[in-house]
Amino acid sequence: MLSVAIQNSGTTLVKGARATQSTIFLKILMAASGTIFIGFVLVHMYGNLRAFWGHDAYDAYAEGLRTFGTPDLPYGGLLWIIRAVLVISLVVHVYCAATLWRRAKRARTIQYQVKKHTGAIFASRLMRWGGVTLLVFIVWHLLEFTVGKINVAGGATNDPYNLVVDSFNTWWLTLIYLVAMAMLGAHLHHGIWSATQTLGLTGSERSRTLAKRSAFVLAVVIAGGFSLVPIFVLAGVITK
Amino acid sequence: MKLTLKIWRQPDAATAGSMHTYDVDDVSGDMSFLEMLDVLNEQLNAKGEEPIAFDSDCREGICGMCGLMINGEAHGPVTTTTCQLHMRSFSDGDTITIEPWRSTAFPVVKDLVVDRGAFDRIIQQGGYISVNTGSAPEAHSVQVPKEAADRAFDVATCIGCGACVAACPNGSASLFMGAKITHLGELPQGQAERDSRVVNMVAQHDHEGFGGCTNIGECTAACPKEIPLDVISQLNRDLRTAIKHGH
Amino acid sequence: MTDMPDTTLTSHPSIDVPLEVDTDDAVDYYTPGAPISDTKAPDGPIDQRWSTRKFEARLVNPANRRKLSVIIVGTGLAGASAAATLGEAGYVVKSFCYQDSPRRAHSIAAQGGINAAKNYKEDGDSVHRLFYDTVKGGDYRSRESNVYRLAEVSTNIIDQCVAQGVPFAREYGGLLDNRSFGGVQVSRTFYARGQTGQQLLIGAYQALERQVHAGTVETFTRHEMLEVIVVDDGAGQSRARGIIARDMVTGEIQTHLADVVVLASGGYGNVFYLSTNAMGCNVTAAWRAHRKGAYMANPCYTQIHPTCIPVSGAHQSKLTLMSESLRNDGRIWVPKNKADCAKDPREIPEADRDYYLERIYPSFGNLVPRDIASRAAKYQCDDGRGVGPEVDGVRRGVYLDFADAIGRLGQEAVEEKYGNLFDMYARITGENPYEVPMRIYPAVHYVMGGLWVDYDLQSSIPGLFVTGEANFSDHGANRLGASALMQGLADGYFVLPHTIRDYLADGPFEKVEETHPAVVAARESVEKRIEHFLTVGGTRSVDSYHRELGHIMWEYCGMERTEDGLKKAIEEIRSLKDEFNRNLKVLGSADSLNQSLEKAGRVADFFELGELMCIDALNRRESCGGHFRAESQTDDGEALRHDDQYAYAAAWEFGGEGEKPILHKEDLVYTAIEMKQRSYK
Ligand SMILES: Cc1cc2nc3c(=O)[nH]c(=O)nc-3n(C[C@H](O)[C@H](O)[C@H](O)COP(=O)(O)OP(=O)(O)OC[C@H]3O[C@@H](n4cnc5c(N)ncnc54)[C@H](O)[C@@H]3O)c2cc1C
Ligand code: HEM
Ligand code: HEM
Ligand code: SF4
Ligand code: F3S
Ligand code: FES
Asked: Which of these, A31, A176, B79, C414, is most buried using a 10 Å CB contact count?
């Protein structure tokens, strides 16, 4: 796919450089795919929150996703488009992350005995392992809710609302989700700011502060928004 | 003051190095950090031990030659160069860990001295405006808005010390590169080569083995000249524009 | 910024007062040589000489340039600009510096600005006025043709730098800003905040790196030139044909051969150990050339800057300059009573303070020229009224007080004007200058002396050209503020490229093999020297010798020089040098990075230079510019020049190991300007 020169070949000068073979291009791809994810999670979060409206509202939303655009699109058409975009984005995002990770490892092979992290927010150093955690979470999440339809409570799996309620009535599953949402929050806290910077939208002190603030707010809103349903299910507010 | 120093010693690039511990006393707060090392070196020389190699030249914070990792911070705890760090920033009895810049693109030459030739090679790839001597038009033929000139100056103050690379968890030289891209990109004279400049400089940067930037921001915190992070934003934007223009 | 008043000029009758005729203080120390003259400068009206020379200098056809090779030692303003320009022209250029990157040459430290006769302010400036100010500033000890040329090309420099992207300060309309600087009444100093040297050097460095990319220039960083190779060309002419350099990382001794060699190796102020120069500044390149036959001219002319941060202790490794502009608003004083020197200055009542500059020079006050301000401070401290910490039993510092200015303008206004200087002061001294007066003391800053060159910038060795601070040519006995940067870039961008082609038109010269006896001998002498330093096996470090040498130089060949002092200095230098050769201790090996070894070579050369500086100072029994002989002053203590006897440049030839140097005099002839004596009272 993409090949970014990774070498420290000393004194040679590069000839015939292409912008699309640079680390920055990888970053732009990450920012682009990340932005798609943000869009997705926002919509997904909205869908989830409909659980507060009750069983029917929630399922209607899931059904609505599938009937959207019919008859121009086949049943579930939009969903498949979304899925395709998401899968491609994920592959790109993860591929770029892995490549940059490998580069960074090679860029410093001897570590400092003592290193302070001045000027960095904690979330920024959590990006890579946080990303891996998110990947694992997504796999599990898809197995649970989409592909495998696992109901840990042993109940039916054909009704999304009931599946959700059953799942989060299980305390440890809720816990896993809350941890995952913390990770997501952290990833977005740095990721959103980072994407604006990568896309070159932060050309001044002011826009930089704005980007950092909005990143924080969005991260809290998304992580918090997702966490509400599991918490309220476990607390017994949302029931079948 | 009496201090304990843990210092990286390495005979040359090919031989592995290790940390050594030294004691120095009679350190006064008025000494610069490098003068403190001078004192240590005098003591070592007297004892028959080879002095510790470290780089410095101007010792007034402008040439960019000095640079040490001091207790995990590039140039130490104050926002300035190593040569302008004074011992009054430390207290009696402190233990100070001193290491060279760590970056694959900056191989260790000896002890605390590293090779920053990669920076020169990045500049060779376009960190200039192509104008031959004698072909320049009258200086007042092009006006440059004061804001642009000031901003160009602000980022042109980069001294090429490499602290940004040393501090960056990814070993990226984006701040250094961004400073040059922004300096030249702010000026009307720098427009003609804007696209090729960024593409070629970034390619050399990657080729040298520096890491990619993930916008962590430790570089700017370590930078003695306080080059702001928006130069990296500018760098990214210029690259994006170059892609748009088909480079 | 600095609005230092112009020197009032009066035709001073005492100029012609003859000295007691046969006072030649240095008679025992040198051998008289034949007078010399600069044969390359064309005659005719001064404003046409440079055009004439450019026209007469022969051309080299572009196809031949690829066959001609140039070695340039130094990447400061003078070296980098020359390398870039000659590279653009198509010559094969090798560029050397001892730092790890060309961008770190000490030109980077220049703060104030660069002069150019652009007359953008329409305040009466012109090429002629810049010429006039520079000759006058140099106390009529420079060559008028050179200075005129310098003023002439100054305007091109600004055009060139702007085109390269040097971010000079601008006005709101987008045009370049200027300020007046260093005692002149016109605004002709272009600046980039307090970092002009840095920005100019980065411009030249970038132009140089562009040529590296183009393949015309090859850079050798961390390479130190240790010898020049002079070869007889078969026709009885000896020519500089290359250098011996040491790769400072591997220790390899390398031979580099070329058709012509350019030295742009900067100044030697570090002979004083403590100076505002960088740690690595040295005389080695120039001194090695001197030993091979290049004349050293006016080595005693040293510029001492009054506003530096004083020495704080024996550990001090260098001194830091603070902009002279501070004298515009700060008031300089010392306690009247010695007993008060250790007191908190704020507790010393007004009545017990001596504002000595305001007292002695009522009309110029704190704004007297650099040398006068420096000397006055020295007198106060020698008199036991200095302030600050005692170093070696003496307090060397005077107060520079902003209390009045803060009272008058408010702290904010002072901060606005001098904030970064105050911060720098606070960082270095740990004191808050808004509350406690600053302490300042003079420090060596620049050397006007250097290798003798003709109008073409060629030394007395054919094929060896010298540019920038390393040559002696343009500043006479004193340099105006903001003129060194101008000279470095003038030499490198606009002068050398023209004059060197006249020399290269005779090339390519016969190929020299590495086995040529002169090459082998040069190489072996370098190897022997290195071997020597490593095997003395004594007990004292290089630094300790350097510090002691510096002390001698500063005491006796610093701000004020006397016959007795200089003679004493020569004795002390000789005996210290002797000890150096027997008792030096350099550890480590020759085949790796060895910073003590590098220093040993430089200090060894400083010993020889220091001695020659003292001899030159001894010979010149007059006071001019930065050179003040106590024996030559007016009744009220002002510098007194003797144009009848000393209106010459002293070009010293190396007399041989252990032999006396040979003095060649080059008479200074002024046709476009009249000599005058200065007065500041
Ligand atoms: C603190 C300070 C402030 C100043 N401010 C001003 C100012 O405001 N305006 C002004 O006009 N002037 C100023 N000056 C003076 C001016 O900066 C210098 O005179 C000028 O920059 C000298 O330039 P150069 O190119 O001749 O030498 P440098 O810039 O000193 O360069 C010397 C070069 O030679 C190389 N070199 C030396 N020896 C060897 C060797 N043996 N082998 C290999 N390479 C060698 C070095 O590596 C370096 O590249 C200031 C000077 C100082 C110290
Ligand atoms: C599906 C949810 C995910 C979202 C919403 C998301 C979002 C983002 C965003 C917006 C960025 C910033 C891009 C930029 O710096 O310009 C980013 C960066 C990153 N993401 Fe993700 N990502 C997700 C999943 C993952 C996964 C599964 C990984 C796993 C490997 C990952 C790893 C990274 C890494 C390493 C970065 C770069 C770090 C940085 O820019 O600071 N992400 N992500
Ligand atoms: C508490 C939080 C969450 C709940 C309750 C939840 C619930 C669900 C449910 C019920 C489905 C199935 C929808 C359907 O089939 O119609 C689903 C699908 C999905 N969820 Fe979540 N989800 C949560 C968080 C997340 C997060 C944080 C992500 C991503 C980072 C995510 C990514 C996905 C994906 C990719 C799908 C598959 C969409 C599809 O292709 O059908 N979910 N989720
Ligand atoms: S950007 Fe800052 S830290 Fe990096 S090289 Fe330049 S001055 Fe040093
Ligand atoms: S710390 Fe490194 S990741 Fe980027 S923002 Fe600075 S270069
Ligand atoms: S030695 Fe020049 S910046 Fe520190």
From this structure: A31
